Amino acid sequence: MSHYRLLRTDRRWAGRAGALLSVVVLAAVTVLFGPPPAAVAAAGSPALTSPLAGAAPPAGSATRSGTPVAAAAYPDPLPVTGNITVHDPAAVRDATGAFAVYSTHNGIEIRTSPDRAAFTRTGSVLPNGATWATAYSSNVKDLWAPDVSFHNGQYYLYYAVSSFGSNTSAIGLATSPTGRAGSWTDRGLVYASAAGGDFNAIDPNLTVDPAGRWWLALGSWWTGIKMIQLDPATGKPLGSNPTRFNLAARTSTSLGIEAPFVFAHGGFYYLFVSWDLCCRGVNSTYHVMVGRSASITGPYTDRSGVRMASGGGTEVVATHGRFIGPGGQSVYTDGGEDLFVYHYYDGAAQGTPKLAINRLGWDSAGWPVLR
Q: What residues have CB less than 8 Å from 282, skipping those under 6 apart?
């Protein structure tokens, strides 16, 4: 989630830089004094029954488990035109049937398309920003990393707000009956993190399991990706379950992991994350990794069986051609087909971040493949 090139690096990258400094200090303290007490719980929540459990990866499958591998040949995104300069896109069909994309900045920007190809900027979710969030940012209009979905007859949009060099961060919620600009109501604070903590409360993603339970994945850098349970009546934390689950981390806190998105398919939950560095234009190193689990709270493992909480992950897409540093991903099922929606830095346009959409397929072992 960032802006166009290094000289234009935005607030969230500055926050990540601060995160990097903080985690280096934390690592040093750990070496001297031992690890801090556990702040999160082990996995344990509703499971999906899967015929693919334990299936071996197909021959020749590319897996990245914390170490670089040669880039695979990835398909280019589908053609899109119009106003497509976006970061951290999330998609849904709004009440008019338009394909709507929500993205970082300016109170969460909205773009719509009648055909999923030609996009027009149509406004913002919260044009005045999150007025409650002054403790987390000096610019409450600069909202990040939206997640949008439709439940209980309305659209729910989670967003993040933070400040320079700090994990003093928060996640907010807005709701709308239509998903259109001018229809949104800010519901305020959902969850927060504070300086001195081991996680960063940004990059929210809501998933509703088959039992109707609501779960929010979140996290950026620090000790990785977390999950909490929400109350479906409010869209906010469930008081009876304060547990914060560990889903994924890197092998070192000096390595980047963020932008979680959980998607259910074929008896598994799939956790997509962005690794490494966004926000550096043509020098960005973002790439998308995935693991899966029969339980929404994990453990998530990659094709090789390495747990994502221990640095595992199977690569979904990485830099190829002009499509540099792909990440900030979401998945949306539209008209019966799964779509992978993300941004990349355009090597043919000085690293400008742009909207990308691919069809998402599934191989014979049930792993996601871009089409």
A: 5, 324, 345, 347, 350, 351
Helix (H, G, I), strand (E, B) or coil at 254: coil
- C-alpha 259/C-alpha 273 separation (Å) is 5
User: In terms of Cα–Cα distance, which of 84, 86, 77, 81 is closest to 1?
Assistant: 86
Residue pLDDT, tens place only, 78-130: 999 999 999 999 999 999 999 999 999 999 999 999 999 999 999 999 999 99
Q: Exposed, middle or buried by CB within 10 Å (0-12, 13-18, 19+), for 73?
A: exposed
Number of helices and strands in the chain (H, E): 1, 22
Average the pLDDT over 50-56 and give the result.
32
Rounded (5°) CA angle 283-326-178 = 130
Q: CA dist 154 to 89, 95, 105, Å? A: 20, 9, 23
CA-nearest of 289, 290, 277 to 351 is 277
Q: CA–CA distance from 258 to each of 96, 97, 341 (Å)? A: 32, 31, 16
Amino acid 34: pLDDT = 39
**Residue located via tokens 């998530």:** 300
Look at residues 74, 24, 37 and name the one whose alpha carbon lies nearest to residue 253.
24
Q: Which of 110, 128, 93, 164 is nearest to 339 (CA)?
A: 93
Dist CA 62 CA 232 (whole Å): 38
pLDDT of residue 355: 99
Rounded Cα distance, 58 and 65, in Å: 16
How far apart (Å, rounded) are the C-alpha atoms in residues 167 and 87? 20
Residues with catalytic function = 88, 258
Cα angle 157, 163, 167 (rounded to 5 degrees) comes to: 85
More confident residue, 352 or 13: 352
Residue type, 221: W
Could you tell me which residues are beta bridge partners of residue 136? none
Please state, in angstroms and rounded to a whole number, the distance separating the CA atoms of residues 142 and 144. Answer: 7
Is pLDDT larger for residue 17 or for residue 301? 301
Q: How far apart are CA 247 and CA 300, in angstroms?
A: 7
CA dihedral sign, ordered 144, 301, 239, 184 = positive
Pull the structure tokens for residue 83. 């106003």
